[in-house]
Design a protein that fits this description.
This protein is of the alpha+beta class. It folds into three domains: 91 residues, Pseudouridine synthase (2-Layer Sandwich); 133 residues, 2-Layer Sandwich (Pseudouridine synthase), CATH 3.30.2350; 57 residues, Archaeosine Trna-guanine Transglycosylase, Chain: A, domain 4 (Roll). Helices cover 21% and strands 34% of the residues.
Length: 304
């Protein structure tokens, strides 16, 4: 007799939870906690936050994991506290102090003037304490062994950078940036430009793509909902197409939806001329995402 196939463990949960990740735990630990509370079969997060950072961590359940990559590519927004005069090994409050320099003469006006230099496209050198890989090994693992390797600067875009408050030697910024931006590196570079060094003392993520803190739920709220039953818990979830809510919507006819599902590009009247789109078909609802080809046809990219 052949072995019986094991029944998949967990519930078939579908949707997106906007978790307010607590301080002090990794994004993966937060994901595992939430997955366990929901008793979900499948879940993934969309871009790590350091243990010392809190805030918005979208968690995708079920088929929503298919579009989590698009949230990884999305713009992010943070509020960040920066402390002048102290540089650390990790560029945040967790690392050992590397150097202290006086910063008494620096004013709020000096900071505001320097911030203009960091708006728009800038070059960033990824930090050693990062998840990037060198010859298959994570940089932070090499850094912990005291090994430093050469890294290539990367272009990132700072869409907005605003000074929220200053209680020197600390100040607080609001930063909207492209994917791949290291806020710790940004803080360090601002500190160097001011001539005294700096590190991140607190970091909170407030936006990921179309999502903001408005719909966030913390661990306590999730646990309270779970006590009231799975139905109450599932009400915390957003539909999976909310991840691409800022993309143009295309409604397909039954015929067009059929061909698209076979992997064939289709011509749709009044479709956008380029870029990404979200796809719908009548009672079937959200089908997935696609792109507009050079010939104007809509091509499927990721179907649910």
């Amino acid at each position: 007799m052949g072995r019986r196939r094991q029944k998949p463990r967990g519930r078939d949960v579908q949707g997106i939870l906007l978790l307010d990740k607590p301080l002090g735990i990794s994004s993966n630990a937060a994901l595992q906690q939430v997955k366990q509370i929901f008793r979900a079969r499948k879940a993934g997060h969309t871009g790590s936050l350091d243990p010392l950072a809190d805030g918005l961590l979208p968690i995708c359940f079920g088929a929503a994991t298919k579009i989590s990559a698009y949230l990884l590519d999305a713009n992010k927004r943070y509020t960040v506290k920066v402390k002048l005069g102290v540089t650390t090994a990790t560029a945040d409050a967790e690392g050992e102090t590397v150097e202290t320099r006086p910063c008494d003469g620096i004013t709020e006006q000096d900071i505001a003037a320097v911030l203009n230099d960091f708006a728009g496209e800038i070059q960033q050198l990824p930090p050693m304490y990062s998840a990037l890989k060198h010859n298959g090994e994570r940089l932070y693992k090499l850094a912990r062994k005291g090994i430093e390797v050469e890294r290539e600067p990367r272009a990132v875009t700072i869409h907005e950078i605003n000074l929220l408050s200053a209680d020197l030697p600390e100040f607080e910024l609001d930063v909207k940036c492209s994917k791949g931006t290291y806020i710790r590196t940004l803080a360090e570079d601002i500190g160097e430009r001011l001539g005294c060094g700096a590190h991140v003392s607190a970091l909170r993520r407030t936006e990921v793509g179309p999502f903001s803190v408005d719909g966030m739920v913390d661990m306590a709220a999730i646990e309270t909902a779970a006590e009231q039953g799975m139905e109450t818990l599932d009400q915390l979830l957003l539909p999976m197409d909310s991840a691409v809510a800022d993309w143009p919507e295309i409604q397909l006819t039954a015929d067009a939806a059929y061909y698209l599902r076979q992997g064939q590009p289709v011509l749709v009247p009044q479709a956008p001329t380029d870029g990404w789109v979200r796809l719908y078909a009548g009672e079937h609802g959200f089908l997935g995402v696609g792109t507009i080809q050079d010939d104007g046809k809509v091509a499927p990219k990721r179907l649910m």
